[in-house]
Amino acid sequence: MIPIAKPKIDEEEIENVIRVLKSGIIAHGEVVREFEEKFRDYLGVRYSVAVSNGTVALDVALKACRIGEGDEVITTPFTFIATANAILFQNAKPVFADIDERTFNIDPDEVLEKITPKTKAIVGVHIFGHPFDVDAILEICEDHNLILIEDSAQAHGAEYKGRKVGTFGIGCFSFYATKNMTTGEGGMITTNDDEIAKRCRLIRSHGEIGKYNHVELGYNYRMTNIQAAIGLAQLKKLDDMNEKRRKNAEYLNRHLKVEGLIKPYEAKHVKHVYHQYVVRLTEDFPMSRDDFMEYLRRNGIGCAIHYPKPIYKQPLYVRLGFGDYRCPVAEEASLQVLSLPVHPALSGEDLRHIVEVVNSVA
Fewer CB near the terminus (10 Å): N or C of the chain? Predict the structure, then answer.
């Protein structure tokens, strides 16, 4: 079976972890600080704050921005549920704006329609590795005095007009095992704002300044040296792994030729890093999505649906009163999308097999 995702772990990651284990300092420490500095320099921001996972990165960023009860935060319904859940954890209200049908990213025109006097922030998601329309969203934030948080969990190294994502607002990254780079679990908050960075560091470590001196309500959201050791090795090869993803996507784009299968879109001014290679199956496709997935798996090709329903249709959100929401573009996409393997561990033979099997469906 060709897996839908596969972490690329080599000897350097293993040696780095062994070095940390032998040091005896395996929790939060100097290796984490080194990883923060290297990630900061890679993006070109002033501050990086390492945390235990990507969901925590969103939670801490929202807390650092003092988002709270009665506030509204506009976001996309077409993403992993953590994006919206982090807003709920502030006792704030997620407000869902529909998406662009080509990129699957939040639609700026839809965002404008959702702004109220209670709106405090926008959480945009660079979904599947394709940056959202940063200029348009930034303009909205500036015009309405809103905070921009970039959910960059799927977009490490992606670029918008030559500038890496996670540098325009407050960036939130995940290093989960299937991401473009991994630490197993882990996350990072990036910012150019001194006060936001300071508050993030306080919140992630019990609100502590100095030993047993707690000045703010915080929690233990720290990354470990073991995670950071893996991250340091992964960061070195992130650009190469992303380039392999892009080349794999280019191969699939050139060779997949089935009526009713729409291949991924990439805007001219962005660098897509293909966390997922997401196709759409329209009514002209020869079989149903469920049948196609079964056909792929029978032929040794892993596949997945990202995402099968908008967040507001999840049982939790229906129970919370979001069931009347309607984002028709997101709803249609959720019924049509399918992810094919694109990860850097794919061989030329794997790619040829994927193309042959998909094209044979006709």
Answer: N
